[in-house]
Structures are given as structure tokens and as C-alpha cells.
């Protein structure tokens, strides 16, 4: 048993050293690894292959821990229309898509066109079809004003999102949240906005807490797990 523990420690030390040496996130190398090693058509295998890659390489993906917390949110909210800001190679897109119902749809935004192409290919490799998702290339600031034209209304959602995942640029979270609200894109009867905050010292969380303090009738914190904060937006009909 002691030998097994030592072997495990050595393996994690090696993985940690490799991650340190290969620290820089590279979308092309992530894509090549996942594309060549996963079982095509199997979303679970795509996510597992991303996780194996992240053991020894720099990775931008949300990963299994935040992934589990995100799964819980999606299972509880059961959204039909989901917006993702910050797709990168598609880890969180695949994670979200595998829990959507057959009539669910994901719009995902990525500002880097080359990365957007790689991420789109991974979503297709995971077995999802263009009827289930659409990749929009552009910054969140440019794309949010156009989102209404891409959003097919689902019953009960009146052309709005029930779930938004922000994993793009924490400095943009507050601005983009307010832009989404101003464009009438957040479902007034309830929309969960999940924010990935990798750096605890990031001041975006303080800014968001100020918004909640100023407008407790519309915004609240629903859950907070590690690097993930779930805000809840709701607007009463009189507002
Ligand atoms: C941390 S990665 C996203 C990881 C992804 N959610 C996953 O789990 O694989 C952030 C991505 O957001 C993109 N990005 C950064 N700022 C953006 C913005 N303002 N609008 C759209 N995409 C942005 C970056 O190019 C990068 O690909």
C-alpha cells in the first residue's frame, strides 16, 4: 500500500512538473490531443480526454471540479436556451450540450476566429449537430447586440436565455451582464448566470456584489462553489 502511495505521489509530482513546463495554454495542441484520442460521437469521452490533457498541459477548460458544479446547475435549471461567452476549445460547450433536452439550443461566443473553428470541430466530434448549437465569432461586446436575431424562441422562454455561462473575460462580466439585461435577453421569470472566477482576487466579484446590493429585487446569489458563482436574475412584471 505504501508503494502504491509513493507511486501515486510520483505521478502527481511528474504531472505537476509537466504542467509547469508546458504551462502556456495552446488551443491547437488541446484540439489535436482531444481530436486524436477521444471516441468520436461520445461526449463523455471528449470531456475525459480534455481532463487527461489538462493533467500534464496548461488548459483553459473549466475542468471536472467546476464541471460537476455546473452540471448541478444545468440539471436544476433545465434550460432550453443557453448562452456561453468564451468557448475556447469547447469543453464547457460539450458539458452543457450533453445535458440539454432535444429541443434545447446553445449559442456560444468566441472572439478568436481560429479558436472558434477548433472549438466548433470538437463540439461536432462529440456528436452534436448544428441544429443544437451555433458558434458566433466575435467579442461579447460586438455579439450581444446581435444575439436576438440568432435566438429561436422556445415555448415559455419568449426568445430569452434561461442560462448564461460567462467564462470569457472577468473584466467584462458586469458590462456584459447589464448589456444582456438591457437587450431583454435574460428570461424575466428567471435566468441563472454562471460566472467562472478563476482568480479569487479578481475584483469582478465585488462589482457584481455591488449590483446585487443595489438591485436586490432583480439579482441574487443562488450558489457559489469554488471558482463558480451562480447569480439569479428575475424581473417582476411591474418592473
Ligand atoms: C477560459 S477560456 C474559456 C474556456 C471554456 N469555457 C472551456 O471550458 O473550455 C476563455 C475564452 O474566452 C475568449 N474570450 C476572451 N474575451 C472574450 C470576449 N470579450 N468575448 C468573447 N470571447 C472572449 C478567449 O479567446 C478564450 O478562448
UniProtKB/TrEMBL annotation:
GO terms for biological process: catecholamine catabolic process; developmental process; dopamine metabolic process; methylation. GO terms for molecular function: catechol O-methyltransferase activity. It holds the Pfam family Methyltransf_3. Gene3D superfamilies: Vaccinia Virus protein VP39. InterPro entries: SAM-dependent_MTases_sf (IPR029063), SAM_O-MeTrfase (IPR002935). Keywords: Catecholamine metabolism, Methyltransferase, Neurotransmitter degradation, S-adenosyl-L-methionine, Signal, Transferase. The keyword Flavoprotein does not apply. PROSITE patterns: SAM_OMT_I (PS51682). Its EC number is 2.1.1.6. Belongs to the class I-like SAM-binding methyltransferase superfamily. Cation-dependent O-methyltransferase family. This is catechol O-methyltransferase. It comes from Hippocampus comes.
